[in-house]
Amino acid sequence: MSNLPNCPKCNSEYTYEDGNLLVCPECAHEWSLDSGTDDGDEKVVRDANGNVLNDGDTVTVIKDLKVKGSSSTLKIGTKVKNIRLVEGDHDIDCKIDGFGAMKLKSEFVKKS
After folding, report:
1. How many helices (H) and strands (E) does the chain have?
2. DSSP 107
3. Residue 81 DSSP label
4. 36-93: per-residue pLDDT in tens?
5. Residue 98 burial by CB count (10 A; 0-12/13-18/19+): exposed, middle or buried?
6. Which residues are CB-contacts of 13 (< 8 A; sequence separation ≥ 6)?
7. 32 DSSP β-pair partners
């Protein structure tokens, strides 16, 4: 058969090449053979303008956001300092003055 490596996530032997990537049909994991190490677990989070976000960055809210469970609204232009990136749908964890701890989606912020 072929001499392609097993999937690093599920150890499946049925991997195949798709362009310059290797793909596992069982768990849908994709990785590059050129990278040498599997960095596929590390998710890149980008803001509304496509800039890469990192832990500790300061971002600005680009849209009025309704705060769930409250009658208040997070206004456009609100600065959020010292963000923390987390896994999930809402990928930014932060504390906002006047609101407290909150999770935000990266598509509604821009890097300051």
Report:
1. 0, 11
2. G
3. -
4. 544 455 678 999 999 999 999 999 999 999 988 889 999 999 999 999 999 888 999 9
5. exposed
6. 6
7. 21
